[in-house]
Every structure is written in structure tokens, then in C-alpha cells.
User: Which sequence fits this backbone?
């Protein structure tokens, strides 16, 4: 029965996953919804699906599945609310990268986190992949699965984002 | 930006995202190029810094409401102290900067909840050998045992058959040998050969061949003996008999029996089964020995096996090999014992036949066992599959999903079990819903009771010269009884008692309405009938169809000592006259409030005035009093109540009420009170 103790039961596993991922998922969802309530709603729905589909998920690496579902749920909630302005979708991402980043505006917000300040300069999509890479520790492959991009696209975005951050550190942005 | 496409690989390499050949190639490039090495190191550092900065953002834990909605399955709690069985390896794995906070907070409530449940997963997982394997082993073992027993039986019977066949051959040979003329045995080792002997030799050869054929046939034929053998054998014996007759004749002719006859036995060598033949005189002195292996014959201890005709069969070693001995008395022509003939056949031949037989039997045995196990596995899987499905369905239900249904795929016991399980689930669901309904109803009753108790007058008016008392006791299912006193002016006091047809909250609502209307109207109206009419006008409009209120409305003129009475279909007023010592029932015409919106009610409702004299008592009540049920389904009854009123009329009003209530309680015994009981009584003192 020693073997039995080694493999956690489904209930144990689910509880552990929820405990382990509730905060990472909520901060990720928050970065999409910009609203704590909606972020937690997305996390709740993610876990609801997790419980229902517990049997189909790779127990050793639940992260890609969790972030994928959470992302979909967060975006769904945004759509439902009609809060299109907070949507970090392609059109917005492109516009944001074309415009000079509104860093001064971001700094004015009191509840801004260090992470947000750090990433404020970047277009939303680069922000997202950077978060998945450095905040959640996902691999390129996993990020690609979560965001629906190709692995090389993820690589390019991370490279560009990091380069942009390095440039900013070295000198003030030139608005390009 | 073509250069970007190339550069991203560099970042990927620095972040450890490249694999295989690409990674190796980059590693070589980095080793060769110090500038590139510095760049990758810078990227790596930047990555680390980013990780550190970003992971300081903690994220939010789920709140209790959302957590509850996830329906996380409970985890077993080993002890009350909350010690979770943590594996050392896992504990270190979870040591994230924020994990200690994370884990301790959200897990506790779920774990605490779980304490009342049996954890599903571990106990519901089948342990030990699966049912299918047990089935397979059981059926396989049965098939194997059956096949084995059958094989043994067949083998035994065939082996016996073979044995018998060989015995018969041995006996026949022995008897043929017995037919030899005693005289011709002498000089058996003499090698001189006459023409008769040559013939005999030829005959013996034929016989030997026949015996050989039989033995070979037995050895090769396995279970079935070749059919042709019998005929061949017969032919051989016929030939032999002829040969022996000829031999006898030859012996006679030679007279002296110059011998050489038994040298013919040397040809027995060609028969592989025959070891030797020993012929002795009655004193056991050897007359002739044929030894297939030539040389000394060593006979071991022979144990007797059977007798066949007059040949005794025994087994034992001859020259070290197992042999079967066929021993027969050799008699001369006159029938006197001339000696003993012993024929020894090798048992190894017999064993060989038996061994081959066994091999032949073993193959079908093994095949049947393998087949049996295969079929068993198939059957077991077919049997246990629906059980596994059912278990998963049961697990779903035990997680609280009472709408989950299992589908019965068969009509056998499992199908019945599935149906029974569905029925159980539905029963559980129904019970659960009933429980909820019951709780809701109880809640409703609590509210209704609260409303009602607030409506009843807090105290009984004290009027000089009058002794007034009232009693009210709600039933468990709140009824709609009501009584009230309305002070109209210094002279007049309105007394009302009412019974609403509905119960629970709806009844209470009607009662509230009726009470307010009566109060409003009663305070300014000196006519009982008019008060009821006006109350009815409004109430009948608002009341739900089928609901009604019976009411006795009275105005007591304190100074004139008169009582003006109107009834809206209520029980009569009981008036006790002290002067006569009798009861009068006052019941003015009237229909219940709420039945009719106006004209009929107005036409029906009447007023009646009675004069009260000192010592007179009147009492009004609701039907909960006469209809109080005993354990034997017996109503208390109007007459009994009237008699009681009569006998108690003299006591003071509080006592009057208490005594009546006590009588009612005695009557109903353990039976539950099914309707409200309300009593209002007054006595004119003096």
C-alpha cells in the first residue's frame, strides 16, 4: 500500500492544484480583465472545469491547460461585459505598440503593481507572453499552446520584449 | 526584420528553451564567441530579474463563495489536529515563496468540511486482485481441473486396455508354449536341426512377426488399437497352431525327440517384447531357457498381478529391467504336470506405449486449459465492465449530483442493480426535496405564528361588573383563529372571534386583513351587522376564491347589559342563564365573510340582541373546540361542550376557560391538536 500513498487521489490532486494555482491564475486573469472580480470569476470557472474534466488533464503538468482555459474564460467575461477597451486583442495590441506607451498615465494609478510598471512600456501581447514566461514559468511550447501562437512567434515576442526593456533601461524610449 | 528572426534564437538559447542539435550548435557558437557569451549571460540575468520582479505580484486567493461553487471534492483528514499526510518529497517541491500562505489558507475550510464525509477516492478504488482476474482464475482452474480429471480417466482406461491387450498376447503365447511336447524340450540347446525344426522355425518366425506387429501397433497407435490387428493376430496364431502340430508330428517321427526344437525359440529375439522363456520341470529344474540377451538370467522377486485363464501373471525385474511374467503349468499328453513354462515380456515396451499415450493426452489438456482461461477472461471482463461503469456513476452521485442517472445496459442482475440504484438516487432526491420543502413549510409556519401572535390582544379588557377571559392555542400547522376586543366608547365594547379557512402564511394574511377591517369599521359603528357587511365588502373583493372567514361579532353594552350579536356563519354563541340554569344558543343568520361580494351577504346577515342578567355567562368559540379529536378518532362534540359550559358557568372566567381546556386535553390524549382552539367568555357579575 506504500505505492498507494505515493500517488495522490484525485481529490488530493485537485485540492493541491487549486491551492497552487489560484493566485497565479488570478494574477494572469487580472492582467487580462483589469478587474479583480472578473479575474476571480474566470479562475472560478477554470477550476469548475478542472473538477469536471479532472480525468482528462495531464496530472504532472496541469499549468498549460489551466492557463489556456483561464485565458479563454477571462476573454469571454470581457466580451460579455462589453468592456472592449480592456481587451488585449490583436487590434489593440497593434495600436498600443504603434503609440508611445502611456507610462506617465500608468504611474498615476495608485494600485499599479511593480510588474505592471515594469511591463507598462510593452504592447499587451508581449506583456502577456512575458508574464507567462517569467511570472508563471511556462516554457515557449506551453505559452504557444496557451496563446495559440506558434512557438517561434512566442520566441520572437519574448526576444523583442526583452530587447525593448533593455533599451529602456539603457536610455529613455525614443517613441519608436 | 530578418535579423530579429535570427536573434530570437539567441534569447531562446539563453533562456534554456532550445533543445537538441540547435542547443548544441548555439553552445558551440557561444563558446567560440566571447561577445555572444556576454550577450547570452546578460539575457539570462535579465530573465532572472524579470522573474524575481514579476513573481512579487502575488495574485488573489479565491474567496469562500467562489470556492464553494467549484465543488472541490473533499480530502480525507487523518486526524482532528489537521495534520495532513505530507510526503517529504512533495513538501519541498511546494516550497514556493508564496506557497505557505497559499496552502494553509484555502485548504483548511475544504478539509474541515470533508471531515463529515467518507473520502471517496481511496476507499472507492478497488484494491487487491481485480474481479475480472478472480473470475479468470476461478473459471480457468475449474476447466483445468475438469480436463485433468477427464484426461486421467481416459488415460487410465486406455492404459488398462493396452495392459490387457499385452496380457492376452502373453497368455496366448504361454499357452501355445504349453502345447509343446514335453519330450521335444529336451536337448533344447542342441544345434542340430531337422527338417521339421526348420518348418517350426518358419512358423515361429511368422508368429513372432505377428506379435511384433501387435506390439508395434500398440506402441504407435496411441489410444485406438488398429482394427486389423485382431485378424492379423488370429492369422498368426493359426499359423502358430499349425506349426506346433507339425512340430509335434516331427517329434513323434524322430521318436527320441532328438531336440533342437527349442533352439527355435532363439528366433524370439526378433520380438522386442520377449525377454526370455524359461521352461522347468515340476521340481523347478530348468529344462530349457531362451534368453533374449544371452547369458545369466537373473530373476528378481515377482509379485503376482492377475490370473488369466490358467496363466498366472506377475511383475518383477528380470536382468535388471521391469518385466511381466506369464507362468503356466506344462502338462504332458496324459495331463500330468511336466513342468512350468515362464514367459517374460519386457514392461518397458508397455511403459513406452503408456508414455506416448500420456503425451497424446497432454496436448488437448493444455489446449483446453488455455482456451478455458481465455474464455474466463472474456466473460470476466464482460461481467465487470458494467460494474465499473456503475461504480463511476455511484461516485458521481455520491459527490452530490442527485440528477445523475446510470443507464442499465442489460436486464440481468447488474441491470437490476443499475435500476435499483437509479431508484435509490431518485428516492434520495425526493427525500432531499421533501426535507427542503418541510423546512420551507416550517419556516412559513414560524412566520405565520409570529404574525398571528402579534395580532392577538395583549391583554383582556377589565370592565367593572364583568369577568372576561379568553384563551387561544395554535395548532402545529398554524390555523387562522382570531379574537379581539374593540373599545367603541365608554359604554360599548366589541368582542369578536373569527376563524379563517386557510392556514399558514396565506391564512395569516387574510386574518390580518380581516382584523384591520373589523377594527377600522368596528371603532365607529354601533351596528354589528353593518360592521360585518362593510368588512365583507372590502374583504370579499380581495380574498382569494375559496377562502373565507367565519366570524362572531358582538357589541356588549356595559351599562344596559345587553349584547348585540351578528354572526358570519360562525358557531353559535353559548349563553348560560343563571335564573333557569339552562343554556341558550344564539345563532343569528349570516354567511361567512368573503363568500359573496355584497347583496347576498347583506340580505342574510342579521342582528340579535339579548339582555344579560347577573350571573349570566356567554361564551364564544371556534370549531377547534367541539372538533377536538381523541386518539380513537372521536370528536369532543357540541353537546359535551354545552354541558361543560353549563356545569362550569358559576366559576370565574379564567377558571372556566382553564377547565374547558383541561377537558379538551384529557379528551385528545396523545393526539396532536389539528386546529386552533379559541375561547372567549364573559360573565355578568352580581
Assistant:
Amino acid at each position: 500500500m506504500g505505492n498507494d500513498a505515493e500517488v495522490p487521489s484525485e481529490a488530493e490532486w485537485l485540492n493541491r492544484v487549486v491551492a497552487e494555482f489560484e493566485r497565479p491564475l488570478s494574477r494572469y486573469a487580472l492582467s487580462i480583465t483589469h478587474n479583480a472580480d472578473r479575474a476571480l470569476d474566470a479562475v472560478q470557472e477554470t477550476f469548475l472545469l478542472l473538477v469536471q474534466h479532472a480525468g482528462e488533464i495531464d496530472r504532472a503538468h496541469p499549468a498549460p491547460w489551466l492557463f489556456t482555459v483561464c485565458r479563454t474564460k477571462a476573454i469571454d467575461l470581457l466580451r460579455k461585459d462589453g468592456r472592449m477597451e480592456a481587451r488585449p486583442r490583436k487590434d489593440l495590441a497593434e495600436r498600443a505598440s504603434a503609440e508611445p506607451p502611456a507610462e506617465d498615465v500608468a504611474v498615476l494609478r495608485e494600485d499599479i503593481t511593480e510588474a505592471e510598471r515594469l511591463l507598462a512600456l510593452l504592447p499587451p501581447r508581449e506583456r502577456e507572453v512575458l508574464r507567462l514566461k517569467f511570472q508563471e514559468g511556462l516554457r515557449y511550447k506551453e505559452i504557444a499552446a496557451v496563446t495559440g501562437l506558434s512557438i517561434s512567434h512566442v520566441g520572437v515576442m519574448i526576444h523583442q520584449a526583452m530587447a525593448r526593456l533593455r533599451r529602456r533601461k539603457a536610455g529613455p524610449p525614443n517613441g519608436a | 526584420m530578418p535579423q530579429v528572426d535570427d536573434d530570437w534564437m539567441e534569447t531562446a538559447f539563453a533562456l534554456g528553451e532550445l533543445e537538441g542539435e540547435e542547443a548544441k550548435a548555439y553552445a558551440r557558437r557561444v563558446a567560440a564567441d566571447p561577445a555572444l557569451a556576454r550577450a547570452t549571460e546578460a539575457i539570462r540575468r535579465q530573465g532572472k530579474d524579470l522573474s524575481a520582479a514579476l513573481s512579487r505580484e502575488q495574485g488573489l486567493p479565491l474567496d469562500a463563495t467562489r470556492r464553494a461553487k467549484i465543488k472541490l471534492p473533499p480530502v480525507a483528514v487523518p486526524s482532528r489536529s489537521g495534520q495532513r499526510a505530507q510526503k517529504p518529497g512533495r513538501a519541498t517541491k511546494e516550497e514556493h515563496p508564496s506557497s505557505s500562505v497559499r496552502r494553509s489558507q484555502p485548504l483548511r475550510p475544504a478539509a474541515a468540511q470533508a471531515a463529515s464525509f467518507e473520502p471517496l477516492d481511496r476507499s472507492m478504488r478497488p484494491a487487491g486482485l481485480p474481479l475480472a482476474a478472480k473470475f479468470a482464475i476461478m473459471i480457468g482452474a475449474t476447466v483445468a481441473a475438469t480436463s485433468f480429471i477427464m484426461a486421467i480417466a481416459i488415460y487410465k482406461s486406455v492404459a488398462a486396455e493396452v495392459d490387457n491387450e499385452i496380457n492376452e498376447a502373453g497368455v496366448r503365447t504361454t499357452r501355445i508354449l504349453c502345447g509343446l511336447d514335453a519330450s521335444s524340450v529336451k536337448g533344447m540347446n542342441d544345434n542340430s536341426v531337422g527338417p521339421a525344426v526348420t518348418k517350426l522355425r518358419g512358423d515361429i518366425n511368422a508368429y513372432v512377426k505377428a506379435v511384433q506387429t501387435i506390439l508395434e501397433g500398440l506402441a504407435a497407435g496411441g489410444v485406438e488399437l488398429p482394427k486389423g490387428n485382431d485378424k492379423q493376430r488370429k492369422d498368426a496364431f493359426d499359423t502358430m497352431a499349425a506349426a506346433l502340430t507339425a512340430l509335434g508330428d516331427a517329434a513323434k517321427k524322430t521318436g527320441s525327440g532328438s531336440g533342437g526344437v527349442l533352439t527355435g525359440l532363439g528366433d524370439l529375439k526378433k520380438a522386442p517384447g520377449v525377454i526370455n522363456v524359461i521352461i522347468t520341470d515340476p521340481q523347478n529344474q530348468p529344462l530349457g531357457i531362451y534368453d533374449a540377451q544371452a547369458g545369466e538370467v537373473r530373476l528378481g522377486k515377482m509379485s503376482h498381478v492377475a490370473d488369466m485363464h490358467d496363466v498366472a501373471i506377475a511383475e518383477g525385474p528380470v536382468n535388471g529391467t521391469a518385466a511381466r511374467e506369464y507362468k503356466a503349468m506344462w502338462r504332458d499328453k496324459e495331463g500330468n504336470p511336466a513342468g512350468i513354462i515362464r514367459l517374460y515380456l519386457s514392461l518397458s515396451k508397455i511403459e513406452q506405449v503408456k508414455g506416448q499415450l500420456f503425451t497424446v493426452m497432454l496436448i488437448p489438456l493444455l489446449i483446453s486449459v488455455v482456451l478455458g482461461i481465455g474464455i474466463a477472461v472474456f466473460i470476466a471482463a464482460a461481467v465487470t465492465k458494467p460494474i465499473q461503469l456503475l461504480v463511476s456513476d455511484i461516485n458521481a452521485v455520491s459527490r452530490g449530483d442527485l440528477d445523475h442517472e446510470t443507464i442499465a445496459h442489460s436486464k440481468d442482475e447488474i441491470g437490476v442493480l443499475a435500476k435499483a440504484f437509479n431508484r435509490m438516487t431518485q428516492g434520495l432526491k425526493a427525500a432531499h426535496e421533501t426535507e427542503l420543502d418541510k423546512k420551507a413549510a416550517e419556516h412559513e409556519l414560524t412566520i405565520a405564528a409570529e404574525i398571528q401572535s402579534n395580532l392577538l390582544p395583549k391583554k383582556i379588557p377589565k370592565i367593572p361588573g364583568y369577568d372576561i377571559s379568553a384563551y387561544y392555542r395554535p395548532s402545529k400547522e398554524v390555523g387562522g383563529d382570531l379574537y379581539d376586543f374593540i373599545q367603541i366608547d365608554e359604554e360599548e365594547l366589541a368582542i369578536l372571534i373569527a376563524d379563517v379557512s386557510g392556514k399558514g402564511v396565506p391564512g395569516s394574511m387574510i386574518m390580518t386583513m380581516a382584523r384591520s377591517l373589523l377594527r377600522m369599521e368596528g371603532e365607529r359603528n354601533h351596528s354589528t351587522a353593518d360592521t360585518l357587511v362593510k368588512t365583507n365588502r372590502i374583504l370579499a373583493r380581495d380574498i382569494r376564491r375559496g377562502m373565507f372567514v367565519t366570524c362572531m361579532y358582538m357589541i356588549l353594552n356595559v351599562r344596559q347589559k345587553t349584547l348585540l350579536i351578528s354572526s358570519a356563519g360562525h358557531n353559535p354563541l353559548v349563553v348560560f342563564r343563571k335564573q333557569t340554569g339552562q343554556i341558550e344558543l344564539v345563532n343569528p343568520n349570516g354567511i361567512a365573510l368573503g363568500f359573496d361580494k355584497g347583496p347576498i351577504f347583506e340580505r342574510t346577515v342579521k342582528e340579535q340582541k339579548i339582555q344579560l342578567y347577573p350571573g349570566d355567562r356567554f361564551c364564544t368559540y371556534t370549531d377547534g373546540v367541539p372538533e377536538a379529536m381523541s386518539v380513537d378518532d372521536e370528536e369532543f362534540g357540541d353537546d359535551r361542550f354545552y354541558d361543560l359550559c353549563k356545569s362550569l358557568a358559576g366559576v370565574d372566567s379564567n377558571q372556566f376557560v382553564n377547565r374547558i381546556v383541561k377537558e379538551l386535553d384529557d379528551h385528545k390524549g396523545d393526539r396532536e391538536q389539528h386546529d386552533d382552539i379559541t375561547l372567549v367568555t364573559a360573565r355578568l357579575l352580581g
Observations:
- Chain A is about 70% helix and 0% strand.
- Residues 1-5, 83-111 of chain A have pLDDT under 50 and may be disordered.
- Chain A touches chain B through 54 residues (CB under 8 Å).
